[in-house]
Design a protein that fits this description.
Elements (H helix, E strand, L loop, with lengths): L1 H17 L2 H26 L4 H21 L7 H26 L9 H21 L3 H5 L1 H14 L6 H28 L4 H4 L11
Helix pairs in contact: 1-2, 2-3, 2-4, 3-4, 4-5, 5-7, 7-8
């Protein structure tokens, strides 16, 4: 925990001197290690595992910080958007793993049942919607592996196990290609449903109508 705080302090000094955007994310990552480390020690001593909850909280805090930088530079023309980029890369795995990892049995990498698989895919779809709204793909990419595991489990449980891997790769590939090709039209459509007052504070990679 002390090492994490020390690393965060050093990262702060480094950013103050050199203004390298990734340094902010490195410092925040070090700060996250302190509470997560304490809670992990508590889990070892008591058997009460609150690490996933702590990881999720840290991820949401980092995400909020990233959005603060993003919304302060909606045109993405300053260093703040680069800082937000690295913070989103940090927040994404923290949020996704804590949300989905427990459902899918990441600790033992067990195969989820049909209900768990559907829940994972629903969470993945929700994360995809968030990614489109904020115009950041990190949280979507972080969930791809979980989505693949969930989808392959559904296929295997449907009785067509011989085609699990090809079908999973095909569907994931199609999803990635479709999102890449239609990202801007999708974002424009989604933002049309968001209150204009909020939408105008989001990055303006597409035009936002009143």
């Amino acid at each position: 925990e002390i090492a994490g705080l020390g690393a965060a302090a050093l990262a702060g000094v480094h950013y103050w001197r050199f203004r390298v955007p990734i340094t902010i994310a490195a410092g925040v990552a070090a700060l996250c290690l302190a509470p997560i480390g304490l809670i992990a020690e508590y889990a070892v001593k008591t058997g009460v595992n609150l690490v996933p909850a702590a990881t999720l909280i840290c991820g949401l805090v980092v995400f909020a910080l990233a959005m603060r930088f993003d919304m302060s530079d909606p045109e993405r023309q300053t260093r703040r958007t680069d800082i937000a980029f690295w913070l989103h890369l940090l927040a994404a795995p923290l949020i996704v793993h804590s949300l989905i990892g427990k459902i899918i049995g990441a600790e033992r990498f067990g195969e989820p049942n049909a209900g768990q698989s559907i829940a994972v895919l629903c969470i993945f779809a929700a994360l995809g919607l968030v990614a489109i709204v904020i115009d950041r793909r990190a949280i979507l990419v972080s969930g791809l592996v979980y989505a693949g595991v969930a989808f392959s489990a559904l296929i295997r449980q449907s009785g067509v196990g011989a085609t699990v891997l090809p079908a999973t790769l095909l569907v994931l590939g199609i999803c990635v290609l479709m999102l890449s090709a239609f990202w801007r039209p999708l974002r424009r459509a989604v933002l049309s449903l968001v209150p204009s007052r909020f939408a105008r504070r989001l990055p303006h990679s597409v035009s936002i109508d009143s």
